[in-house]
Amino acid sequence: MWPVLAVLLSIVNGQIVLANSAINDQVDVFFGTENGGNVFPGPARPYGMVKMGVDVLDAKGGSAYSGYSPDGRINGISMMHESGTGGAPQYGVVAQLPLVGDVDLGSQQTIERSSPDSGSVGHYLVNATNGVTAEFAAADRAGIYKYTFPSGTTPSVLVNGSHHLSAPTRPWWTQYFVNGSLSTSSEGKYTGSTTIKGGWGEQSPWTIYYCGDFETAPSSINAFSGSQRFNSSTVSSSIQDGSFGFLFTFPEGTTSISSRVGISFISTDQACRNIENELSGYQIEDTVAETVKKWNTQVFGKVDIETDNSTLLEYIYTALYGAHLLPSNRTGENPYWSSTEPYYDDFFTIWDTFRCLNPLFNILSPSRGADIVRSLIDTWRNDGYTPDARSANQNGRTQGGSNSDIVMADAYAKNINDGINWEDGFSAMKKNAEVTPEYVYDPKAPDASNKEGRGALPDWLKYGYVTRAYTRSVTRTMEYAYDDFALSVVAKGLGYTSDAAKYLKRSTNWKNIWNPEATNSSVSYKGFVQPKNADGTFNGTNYDPLSCNNCYWTDDEYEGKPVEYVWAVPHDISSLVDLMGGNDSFSQRLDDMFALHGQGFADIGNEPSFLTPYLYNYVNAQHKTVELIRYLVNTKYSPGASGLPGNSDAGAMQAWLLFGLFGFYPVAGTTTYLLSSPFVPKTTFNLENGNTVEIVANNLSDTNFYVQSVQINGEDWNKNWFSHEDLFENGGTITFELDSQPIVWETGDVPPSPGHTNS
Ligand SMILES: *[C@@H]1O[C@H](CO)[C@@H](O)[C@H](O)[C@H]1NC(C)=O
Ligand SMILES: *[C@@H]1O[C@H](CO)[C@@H](O)[C@H](O)[C@H]1NC(C)=O
Ligand SMILES: *[C@@H]1O[C@H](CO)[C@@H](O)[C@H](O)[C@H]1NC(C)=O
Ligand SMILES: *[C@@H]1O[C@H](CO)[C@@H](O)[C@H](O)[C@H]1NC(C)=O
Ligand SMILES: *[C@@H]1O[C@H](CO)[C@@H](O)[C@H](O)[C@H]1NC(C)=O
Ligand SMILES: *[C@@H]1O[C@H](CO)[C@@H](O)[C@H](O)[C@H]1NC(C)=O
Ligand SMILES: *[C@@H]1O[C@H](CO)[C@@H](O)[C@H](O)[C@H]1NC(C)=O
Ligand SMILES: *[C@@H]1O[C@H](CO)[C@@H](O)[C@H](O)[C@H]1NC(C)=O
Ligand SMILES: *[C@@H]1O[C@H](CO)[C@@H](O)[C@H](O)[C@H]1NC(C)=O
Ligand SMILES: *[C@@H]1O[C@H](CO)[C@@H](O)[C@H](O)[C@H]1NC(C)=O
């Protein structure tokens, strides 16, 4: 625990009101770190380039995706990580490791924990069995380490230039050390670079530059390369996965050593400047306090919560924290082109985040949302395509569609325009929709490029669906349709009426793979999406909508079964209601998606089914949405390290939880939000434009959570949805009256289906 701030509580009308300055104490940085959540627990600033954390070998779960695992041996404390990803570990570069006594540089050095790690916003502490305590704190592009050594020992700090994360359980996607070099002065200031390749995005070699110094001068410095130890102020290696670096040894009896490290994708000089710009001295407390301040002003202060339920307070601020670690703001750190536009990297991945994390940014911080869109457009401008995923400054991989289209349409629809060149934005989207990306061989799915854009575009353009000649044909068809809807939104707004009509029409193409006869004997209804051949026949009349083989790269569906993908048309749910035979059968089929009332076909721990529990709103059965969201939040999520139901996926899972707790959910790429029911009596959003949005839940209790009536901005509201401008442009209030009886309270129009056409 870091004693920076005490918890400040006041009681108003029986509710605990938290002052923003103490909110960081509500955050459990270990939430979702285990059980596949893969959240990164180390210190970082919102969207920070530096994410400082421990890296472990022999993690119980196999690969340590964020570097962290509560078990295993620590082989470095490094400067860069991703958070919450599946795929494969990325980064884990630029490391130090505190050691005592004689060090065998010819073998992998590790330390072991003597107690569980302790972490809080901006600060992390490891106690090791060698008696060393390692504390560290991150700024944006630099960080600070403070080591406390036991008295009477000879302390040293290992700087291993080839350290990086690897993927023992997925060796085909592991990173490799390529080459690197380091030099040092006698005071222990060191600069160098490390080049790495590989990883989930199959990155070509990329280089990180770094600069480090120590508050105390070392008594000796050893260079090493392989098992050779020698006296030299420079050392390098170009042996794949060779070991090289420096061992800085300090005078016997030194008990406290602090070190600062800066990183840069540009040069060692810039890495050193990043230290000077961000760290005034070696006081770790100062850096922690600055980090806490940034989280409060940029993230936590955007949302005030009133509740007497401490679990919910912890959930909300912890989820806000985990939702703001990625992407990374790398403006000024782009090695490939220079530009005045913002630059963001570590979209790992947009396939995960477009549904609700990007829409969350667009509420809490639209200027940040605009920066992200500008960066996507600038990546198209200079690199050819907007990414579906990107890290280490390289696009890759695309799982289904080109979902940056939806991120862009979401901002456009919500009037988020801050500096965005929408003509270029639309050109970038059109490239996704019209230009097949250059073929890049991918051993996981060699049928088409998975680097960027839409690999199966030739089929989409020729047949109006993706045939089984391509892998993931169902996923691609469904996502290309939704992506084309996103194009129609922007085209319409820009006045390109023929493009708007063209893409709107293309957005209905998902119906081409609807097979009205498809069924499974365990369900009473018929009609699912299914792979289709080029000649227009469905591939196999017995195609099982409840199965997807492995739901992976070479299957017909990616990370979801046909029974899940059939709902993936947020732009035209009304057509789906019709195809499924009307309100009642639509609702009955929804019941089967989760185990509350039905069979439980969907996995809320993965993104394809994120919107599904809210779809009851489209047939004015909102009480069923409310009941289901209660069930999913209360049974699938829990506080603590194992609390997420799946990979966090860069904060996507936390964003889903947040909307569930707030009581509404975005339909990405549109202005619509679907109402559920809040978990807390009062939420206030402090909008960037100075307005506030209040969400008030009257008569809320453990049993009173069904909506009886709603008012928006003081007026009776008979719809179970609202649009962005109703609240988030000028501020406003939603007031829910709650009770224990599920009733159909909504008599107004169902939520819009803007992709619906009669053609
Ligand atoms: C340095 O890092 C590499 C790659 O992780 C590792 O193989 C090597 O054993 C490390 N060297 C030392 C001395 O720990
Ligand atoms: C780490 O060790 C220090 C010194 O022994 C001790 O004061 C502290 O409580 C320990 N922290 C944890 C998290 O175990
Ligand atoms: C390191 O590897 C990269 C990529 O292969 C190459 O461009 C660079 O010249 C190499 N540097 C050295 C010092 O060998
Ligand atoms: C390395 O340099 C130190 C002085 O800094 C000296 O005492 C030592 O003998 C040298 N070792 C080797 C192997 O040259
Ligand atoms: C607090 O909220 C959680 C999550 O909804 C719930 O499980 C718990 O019962 C609530 N605690 C109290 C004291 O109401
Ligand atoms: C992103 O980073 C740049 C460079 O450090 C900085 O100027 C800018 O303010 C950052 N963006 C935000 C929204 O904080
Ligand atoms: C499905 O299509 C593939 C080629 O696209 C073909 O090889 C296979 O025989 C078809 N299977 C059925 C059951 O029609
Ligand atoms: C129905 O689904 C179950 C579960 O996927 C599967 O075992 C069975 O073979 C399916 N039956 C048909 C006729 O597709
Ligand atoms: C389906 O439900 C909506 C919302 O209640 C209603 O307006 C519509 O008439 C219903 N359709 C039919 C065919 O009953
Ligand atoms: C609050 O809920 C209770 C049931 O728990 C109900 O009897 C009462 O009428 C509700 N009050 C209001 C103001 O809706």
Describe the structure in brief.
The protein has 17 helices and 33 strands. With 759 residues, it is α+β, with helices and mostly antiparallel strands. The protein has a domain at 31-297: Beta-galactosidase, Chain A, domain 5 (Distorted Sandwich).
Task: Write up what this structure looks like.
The protein is α+β, with helices and mostly antiparallel strands and 759 residues long. The chain has a domain of 267 residues: Beta-galactosidase, Chain A, domain 5, CATH 2.70.98.10. The protein is built from 17 helices and 33 strands. Strands 6-7-8-9-18-13-12-11-16 form a nine-stranded antiparallel β-sheet. It has an eight-stranded mixed β-sheet with strand order 1-2-19-28-29-33-30-31, with helices on one face. A seven-stranded antiparallel β-sheet has the order 3-4-5-10-17-14-15, with no helix packed on it. Strand 8 and strand 9 form a beta hairpin. Helix 10 runs antiparallel to helix 11. It is globular and about 80 Å long. The N terminus is likely disordered. Bound molecules: 2-acetamido-2-deoxy-beta-D-glucopyranose (10 copies). One 2-acetamido-2-deoxy-beta-D-glucopyranose (NAG) binds next to strand 7.
